[in-house]
Structure formats: C-alpha cells, structure tokens
Amino acid sequence: MPDLQAPPAPALCLDDFEGLAAGVLPVEVREFVAGGSGTETTLRLNRSALDGVTVVPRVLAGVAEAEVGCRLVGGQVGMPVVVAPMAYQRLVHPGGELLLARAAAAAGVPYVISTLSSFPLEEIAEVAPSWFQLYWLRDRAVVESLIDRAEAAGCGALMVTVDVPVMGRRLRDVRNGFALPADVVAANLVGARSEAHVGVPGLSAVAAHTASAFEPAVSWQDLEWLRSKTKLPLLLKGILDPRDAVRAVQVGADGIVVSNHGGRQLDGAVASVNALPRIVDAVGKECEVLLDSGIRSGTDVLRALALGASGVLIGRPLLWALAVDACGEALELLRKELSDAMLLAGCANVQAAARLTTGRA
Ligand code: FNR
Hints:
Cofactor: FMN
Domain FMN hydroxy acid dehydrogenase: 6-361
Number of strands: 12
Organism: Kribbella koreensis
Protein name: Alpha-hydroxy acid oxidase
Largest sheet: 8 strands, parallel
Number of helices: 16
Bound molecules: ligand FNR
Distance between the termini: 45 Å
Oligomer: single chain
Family: Belongs to the FMN-dependent alpha-hydroxy acid dehydrogenase family.
C-alpha cells in the first residue's frame, strides 16, 4: 500500500515545479499561468527554438568553480537572472509577491514588481531590492503617480512593457471564464477591483480590465516624455525587431528585454531567442540586452549568454515554485544548474560564457 503521507519527490529541474504546483492550484489558475495566446504557436516555438541553440564547450580551462555573479543594469547580482514581472501573484499563494521577492533578495537577483501586483509596490520594495514594471495606462496621471511611487519606494529601474497594446487572445482563460477571485486585486490601481473581476462576452475578466485600463496607442513620443521624467535606468520589455531596439537606444533606454511575453501576446511572433542575435548586433554595445520567454534551466541561461544577452528574465517556473512555497529552492536550483553548465562549458565567469561559440541543432 503506498504511503499517502509521503512528501512529493524533490524538484530536480525547474519543470518539476509545474507538476508540484498542479497538485495545489485550481485548474483555471494553472491555465492562466501556463497559457499562451491563440494557437499557442509562439509559446511552443520559444521552447523548440531554445532547444535548437547549441553551445560549443571549451575544455581544460583549469576552472574548479564558475563565478555566476556579475554586473547587471548597473548593480551586482548573484547570477544573471531577473524575476520577470508577473501580475497577481496572490493567485498562486497568499504570500504572493512578498514571498517571491524575499527569495529573489536572498538569491541576489532583482525582482520586478508588476503594475498589476497584488500587494502594493511599496510593501514589496520594502522586502527586496526591486525594479518596477510599468504598463501604460490610459490615465496619464496614474502613470505619473506610479513612476513617482516607484522612485519613492527605492526601485532600482523602470521596465516599460511595450508589447501589450491589448492583451493577446488567451483562449484558455476565455474558455474557463477566468476572473480574479474577490481577494486578489490590482493593489497599485485604485478602482481596478471591480473591472478585473468581471468578464464580458469573449473576453476573460483580466483581458476586459486590460482593454479598459491600458493605453493601446503608446508611442515613442510617450517614451521620450518618460525618459525626461525619470532618472531611473529605463528598460523596454517586449522588443523583437532590431529597428525598435535602435529606436529604444535613441530615446535613451539603458536596456531592452527581447521578449514575446512568454508567448502570451502576438501568437505567431518570432521566438525571442531567435530574435536575440540580430538585436545584440544592432545595439549590444550601446545598451544591455536581456532575454525572456521559455527559459527553463541553467543551460538556457548559458545559451542566452553565449548569444550575447547580459542576462535573462524567468517567469512561469517561479510562479509554480511559489505555489508550493519553494521559490528559494527554485532559484538555488537554477543557480546550481548555471554554475554546472558554465563549468561543463569551460567558463570561469559570465564574460567567458559570452565568448562561447553557438550553433543550431
Ligand atoms: C506575465 N508577464 C507579464 N509581463 C509584464 O510585463 N507584466 C505583467 O504583469 C506580466 N504578467 C504575467 C503574468 C503571468 C501569469 C505570466 C506567465 C507572465 C510576462 C512575463 O514578464 C515574462 O515575459 C514571461 O513570463 C517570460 O516567459 P516564461 O519565462 O514564463 O516562459
């Protein structure tokens, strides 16, 4: 007879946390986190493209331990990893953003507070060195106040997400009639509560809220205004075309995140890792280039570094880990995987990883 009280097997890779989380999360929350937009083609491409990147290891490097700590966006970090901004983290655990941010601080990696965080940004910034992610809202006064609040709370950078003029069509959420439970709110946004809890035909409640609250027609002029308003390091998240990367540098961005939002926005968009090399060629000397969408292991981080990224953002695996109160474990596993991958590739540090040769499977 199996022992029903036996603890779950420990996670040996980040994907294992998804299975553990599946045991504790309601299906509609699982699907909100896991899902992509449309036919989920881009969601799948993110993985297959990363799997297709090969790295040519170096040998006899005389290295006993790889140094994974490095500089990133002006600060020292424990590894070249950033916790991606993700909305409504109390959906998966009552400790939500506070738990994940604390684990990020312990691992020495920046935590990015979402505009749609379910704890107020000030409370999160108090527990961890954080960056703030800005969604451009229709009400400019609210945008200004969010920037002021992020500065006052000591956030170390501002990350503007530029790939959400509207929310991608996430069919799983529509089918599930996904809406926020009453105790999960967009804590930074006054008045958002009722909207994010009620769907309209064909749109989940979260998509309906985005449609009413977000400004779809944000432009480079708005970014110029933003650049003149804040001295914080500015990153633009959601860039896939080198021409936009060049423009980002022209408006004074300090970094860009090559991202397709984890396959949640334009379905059919290029896998972000496939967009990375041309963007590094175009602006890699002028600003920091980070990558997200599909990163699931230390090997993936090594692939990104070898392709010229200065670091990566990681999303869903940390929400799965949060669901089972294992954020620290997940980040430690990733650090160990990266350190092992670097050692196996003969890299003493992240600068050496950037000199590796890459290919295609
Ligand atoms: C996100 N993402 C996101 N991005 C952003 O700029 N602001 C946000 O509030 C959110 N919210 C959010 C919620 C959930 C549940 C997910 C899964 C994702 C996108 C996120 O920052 C990141 O780009 C992707 O998650 C990266 O892909 P992976 O690592 O999840 O594959």
